[in-house]
Amino acid sequence: MSDEPQPQQPHPGWAKREPQAAGDGRTGQPGAPGTPGTSEKAKKPKRPKRTGWRRLIPTWRIALSTVVVGLLLIVGGFFLGYHLVQIPAANALATKQSNVYLYADGSVLARDGEVNRESVSLARISKDAQHAVLAAEDRDFYTESAIDPMAMVRAGWNTATGKGKQSGSTITQQYVKNYYLAQEQTVTRKVKEFFISIKLDREKSKNEILEGYLNTSFFGRGAYGIQAAAQAYFGVDAKDLTAAQGAYLASLLNAPSQYDVVAHPENRPAAEARWNYVMNGMVDKGWLSASDRAAAKFPKPKQSTVSTGMSGQRGYVVNIVKKYLIENGIVDEEELGRGGYRITTTLQKDKQDAFVKAVDDKLMSQLDKKKRKVDSYVRAGGASVDPKTGKVVAMYNGIDYVKQYTPNAVRRDFQVGSTFKPFVFTSAVENHSETQSGQTIDPNTRYDGTSERPVQGWTGGRYAPENEDHRDYGHVTVREATDKSINAVYAQMAVDVGSDKVKQTAIDLGLSKNTPELTPSPSIALGVATASPLDMAEAYATLANHGRHGTYTFVEKVMKDGKQEVELPERREHQAVSREAADTTTSVLRSVVQNGTATAAQAAGRPAAGKTGTAEEDTAAWFAGYTPDLATVVAVMGQDPKTAAHKPLYGAMGLARINGGGAPAEIWGQYTRNALEGEPVSDFDLQLQDGADVTAPPSGDASDEPGDGDESGSGEADEDATGDEDGSGSATPGDSGGSSTPPGDGGGTESDPPSTGGGTPSTGGPSTEPGPTGGGDSGGDDSSNGGTGPGGGDTDGAGGGDTGTGFPGIPVTPGRQ
């Protein structure tokens, strides 16, 4: 047989192939024609190359490989982590440290208590309380695993998308965090929590885990564990907690201090909503009958009790500084509750002591509570700020934190009276405002000071505030109107400037935009707003600092466990109002101290500027003043210790009345003198508005009708319609007795024509028409003294809360009419 290959018959339907070139190597035999079957394989078409966007999509082989490798890594990582992470010993919570609060010089101010915790077995915790906690935190605790991956993913997504920091932890995970780990929010801690939770779930029963969780959780009021919480809030043991009480304690786990309705009554709606959620959850799970749920009422916690270690000013300071740290995001509330922090405050011990002594000398020592019931109403509050740094260097909050719980320095429920008037004038200069007749407002601008003269240019209805004792002053300068605190002038000025601009200036200077009753209307000038002494001190510090404003601060330094320094927010300062506006206001307020209602402040022995004020019906008297180095506000307030209602101070200290030029200015003078003792005397360096350096002659056309004079018999001035003093004993109505010339101001004559502010003076009686929003006709009858709701904070009265600040205090008083 021939060795030559036999020709192959082409397969039916195949196309005729072209002969291959010899030696192309495709047959495996160089130079030979393709052998059967090999050319067809060599000629198999290639897979087309992926082009364009298809190159970005992985093939199914790559995708499958990735999934397999990923699963292997996850499984391997899980087993590796499970074997590497061991259940550690309990953390140091059992030996928790106190927080130490220091004065600025490093001396100890206070120590924040010992750990308040008593561990109990699950059998000593009522079933209702157990079920309430489960309904609040983990309703499927007994049937679910130690971790809930879906909840963790959901919580992470909500946090990442800006819906707030949320927890995806089960009770087991929370117990692991509380008992075995620290509280830092790190990936490492979360990984440890994950594996320890799984191991713990295998090694301990659900009852043991629940018992541990209930004994380590923080409930506020310094209480760790449900037994301590039951005693702190209801004075009962954990085994005696009812469903309603248990649901309240379970609600606290979500926000321990904020849901304490005694300390923060303004948060009661949120606390009740959380309580209802827990109670309804108990019904849904069959732990509480529908009838028992319907009969249950929101429980009322008892007043918080404090140790004697918090007596005097210490307890007030600790709570205020705590709130400052938490609200500014410096330290988490629960972490602060665990202790170990060393907090250096801005308070200076010598100034703090001087403040307390001044209040004792000028006010408290003059009271006789057995002889005069009204003396039992007297409260005092004050704050002192360094204008250049914004540091709060001293505060006075009450006679004793253990006896009077409400911190008077930060409460926002008493009207500030005419201490607000300087903000009106500052706004006038800042906005280059003019009177109704077109004159630029400056210290020498003349206004009609007739009592009950309707303001002109206000479209919100008739408003005709009366001056004290219906006294008429005729045409007076702004400087003289400030000295005598004339309501008619400043109500008109607020309209000339624009009450909305006045409000904004007050906020720019330092008042909170949420200050109760801070509404744009003519009455804003008379001080119907209820700012705190600290708020007012911050605003007056801005005036003292030539219009530059920086938020106040309580804290110099925070250390954790003696080695880790906590970062503090950067203090920001800006020019809130022009230097010209601030300094011109200072010039006018210097006259108040030299010739007006605040002559008692001269006891400071230094150049000073300030303003007196009194709340409606004499429920509070104020003095706000400053030197170049220190801005301080003092308020004397009237509050019933039983009902927490605001009370007039007529007859207190044996005087007919307490006005701003009396005890408040006297306290301010003594405190400022002692606080600055040994420091160089500084004078004001003022850059004034054009024409403000010349003092116009006083008016001489006031009504000849005498007023009631000094009812108090103290030699101090009477108050205006918001309670401000006028006259100060230095001049009779209509005759100032000389020009009002503070040091540094030159004499001169008034060349401009008088500005009446428009309108015809009204000589009638008090207006009975309603005043504008935020105030009213101060000449009308006002039977409201405010503060009649539950509140307070004295140990013998109902607990209250400061709705403006979140500090414990009194419900906000309605604006005066």
Fill in the keyword field for this structure:
single chain, 817 residues, alpha+beta, five-stranded antiparallel beta sheet, 21 helices, 18 strands, disordered C terminus
Describe the overall structure.
With 817 residues, the chain is of the alpha+beta class. It is 30% helix and 9% strand. The chain has helices at 38-42, 60-84, 127-137, 149-160, 171-179, 187-203, 206-216, 226-234, 243-252, 268-284, 290-295, 314-327, 333-338, 349-362, 421-430, 478-484, 487-497, 499-509, 533-544, 579-595, 663-675, and strands spanning 100-102, 108-111, 116-117, 223-224, 341-345, 378-385, 392-396, 446-448, 475-477, 548-550, 555-560, 564-565, 573-575, 609-614, 620-626, 631-638, 718-719, 725-726. The strands form 6 sheets. Strands 2-1-5-11-12 form a 5-stranded mixed β-sheet, covered by helices on one side. α3 packs parallel to α9 (243-252), α14 (349-362) runs antiparallel to α21 (663-675) and α15 (421-430) runs parallel beside α17.
Structural class: alpha+beta
Number of H- or I-type helical stretches: 21
C-alpha geometry: globular
List unreliable stretches of 5+ residues: 11-35, 162-167, 701-817
Biggest sheet architecture:
5 strands, mixed
Strand order of the largest sheet: 2-1-5-11-12
Percent range of helical residues: 25-40%
CA-atom Rg in angstroms: 38 Å
**How far is the N terminus from the C terminus?**
132 Å
Q: Approximately how much beta-strand content do the residues carry?
A: 5-15%
Query: What does the average pLDDT come to?
Result: 78
What is the number of E strands?
Answer: 18
List the helices and strands and how they pair.
Blueprint: H1 38-42, H2 60-84, E1 100-102, E2 108-111, E3 116-117, H3 127-137, H4 149-160, H5 171-179, H6 187-203, H7 206-216, E4 223-224, H8 226-234, H9 243-252, H10 268-284, H11 290-295, H12 314-327, H13 333-338, E5 341-345, H14 349-362, E6 378-385, E7 392-396, H15 421-430, E8 446-448, E9 475-477, H16 478-484, H17 487-497, H18 499-509, H19 533-544, E10 548-550, E11 555-560, E12 564-565, E13 573-575, H20 579-595, E14 609-614, E15 620-626, E16 631-638, H21 663-675, E17 718-719, E18 725-726
Parallel strand pairs: 1-5, 3-4
Antiparallel strand pairs: 1-2, 5-11, 6-7, 6-16, 8-9, 10-13, 11-12, 14-15, 15-16, 17-18
